């Protein structure tokens, strides 16, 4: 008899023998070791045996979870961390400082890399035995369905016994039966295998989608901007769609790659590894003595961004504070203006750059300026006299009160990395960077650009 046919007969016998591997091995006449090897690779174990792992409390944990105990409580009773319990529930194995997922993903926390390892074609043992939401049929229920079908019971009778609609029973039998025969353990394995659907990344294949994404990354667009630009550029081509997360995975995750490393460095952070979001550290805590008008006294119309012409400002500073760039952001349109400070950033130097910048604007776009309490704005009264623009100061340690400007400074660091000399950039260089930023679509602007919004303001007034 062909080896494949013998193996198929073994699994058929396994269903008839109520999941007994030894019994099925005797029926088909194969060695028990061979039979257990087949079962292990297929993600099947002998009936009545509890799951085991290296931890002595694993069997007790499985028993508690099967009885309905919450994960946190079961973990506490057996003395393991809740994350370990979560890994057990999900079929994740811990190998050294790495975790191996049932779908073959191996996350190495030491190297900070994710790769794919070969997995067996069948579902894992944990996937076969996983008890998920109550809406899913369990292996016990599938065994009962098979028994009652052999007894000639109707679909409605089976449904009443299980407390499920007859349509659920019909779909299960129609989907999982093979040649008109419903075998519960085969059905359980087929269900477990169908739950996970790993797919090859869209960006792992050459084509117009990957070319478009790579091209926009080189132009320093963010993955989210690229995602929302695709339906606009290709409204009738459903194949030209990709989520921001897919782009990030194609860059950061080795197993789902598809974008070259030189494209990855075009990301604004310049990182080659992902890291959790953390609040940025407060950087400006120094005050000056001159009288200030605080942000609490700023008109309400500025806060809700309903009226254009109100600006947020700050400096990005080079090494040893020897050079700087003035950054101004309009709160309504997110329009960016940059000022050149190659020789320093004293209060007088900052004033002399800010005044001509603001004076290039029409009167209706000179509403106010919000700044932090850095000493570079010590000449704020002189600035107000020269331009007619009042200056409001943020509270100490409160960068979120100038959120648009803080965000813009982060974008600018892609062009002017920290630790680099800002004096080498000319006024023309700054104008070019400002044009690039003002030409990017923004989510907060309903994917229009700051330049378009500012143009609308100038042409409608």
Automatic annotation (TrEMBL):
Domain Integrase catalytic: 295-458
One Pfam family linked to the record: HTH_38
Entries under InterPro entries matching the protein: Integrase_cat-core, IS30-like_HTH, RNaseH-like_sf, RNaseH_sf, Transposase-Integrase, Transposase_IS30-like, Transposase_IS30_CS
Annotated GO CC locations: cytosol
Gene3D superfamilies: Ribonuclease H-like superfamily/Ribonuclease H (3.30.420.10)
Keywords associated with the record: DNA recombination, DNA-binding, Transposition
Superkingdom per UniProt: Bacteria
Gene Ontology MF terms in the entry: DNA binding; transposase activity
Keyword RNA-binding: no
Cited NCBIfam families: transpos_IS30 (NF033563)
Family named by the database record: Belongs to the transposase IS30 family.
Protein name: Integrase catalytic domain-containing protein
Record organism: Streptomyces violaceusniger
């Amino acid at each position: 008899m062909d080896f494949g046919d013998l193996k198929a007969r073994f699994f058929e016998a396994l269903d008839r023998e109520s999941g007994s591997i030894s019994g099925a091995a005797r029926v088909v006449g194969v060695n028990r070791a061979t039979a257990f090897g087949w079962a292990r690779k297929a993600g099947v174990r002998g009936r009545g045996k509890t799951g085991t792992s290296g931890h002595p409390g694993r069997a007790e944990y499985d028993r508690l979870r099967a009885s309905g105990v919450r994960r946190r409580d079961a973990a506490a009773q057996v003395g393991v961390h809740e994350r370990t319990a979560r890994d057990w529930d999900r079929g994740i194995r811990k190998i050294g400082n790495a975790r191996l997922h049932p779908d073959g993903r191996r996350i190495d926390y030491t190297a900070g890399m994710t790769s794919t390892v070969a997995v067996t074609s069948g579902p894992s043992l944990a996937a076969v035995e996983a008890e998920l939401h109550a809406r899913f049929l369990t292996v016990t229920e599938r065994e009962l369905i098979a028994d009652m079908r052999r007894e000639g019971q109707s679909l409605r009778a089976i449904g009443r016994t299980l407390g499920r609609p007859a349509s659920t029973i019909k779909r299960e039998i129609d989907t999982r039966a093979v040649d008109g025969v419903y075998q519960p353990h085969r059905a359980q394995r087929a269900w477990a295998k169908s739950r996970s659907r790993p797919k090859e990344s869209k960006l792992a294949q050459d084509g117009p989608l990957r070319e478009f994404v790579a091209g926009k990354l080189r132009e320093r667009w963010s993955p989210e901007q690229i995602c929302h630009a695709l339906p606009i550029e290709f409204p009738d081509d459903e194949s030209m769609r990709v989520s921001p997360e897919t782009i990030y995975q194609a860059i950061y995750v080795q197993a789902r790659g598809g974008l070259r490393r030189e494209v990855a460095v075009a990301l604004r952070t310049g990182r080659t590894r992902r890291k959790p979001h953390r609040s940025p550290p407060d950087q400006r805590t120094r005050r000056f003595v001159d009288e200030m008008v605080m942000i609490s006294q700023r008109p309400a119309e500025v806060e809700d961004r309903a009226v254009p012409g109100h600006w947020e400002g700050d400096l990005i500073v080079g090494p040893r504070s020897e050079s700087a760039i003035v950054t101004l952001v309009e709160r309504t349109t997110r329009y960016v203006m940059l000022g050149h400070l190659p020789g320093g950033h004293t209060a007088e130097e900052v004033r002399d750059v800010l005044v001509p910048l603001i004076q290039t604007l029409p009167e209706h776009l000179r509403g106010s300026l919000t700044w932090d309490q850095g000493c570079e704005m010590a000449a704020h009264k002189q600035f107000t006299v020269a331009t007619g623009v009042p200056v409001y100061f943020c509270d100490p340690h409160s960068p979120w009160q100038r959120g648009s400007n803080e965000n813009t400074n982060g974008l600018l660091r892609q062009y002017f990395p920290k630790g680099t000399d800002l004096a080498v950039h000319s006024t023309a260089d700054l104008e070019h960077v400002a044009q690039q930023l003002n030409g990017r679509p923004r989510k907060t602007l309903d994917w229009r650009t700051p330049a378009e919004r500012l143009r609308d303001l100038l042409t409608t007034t």
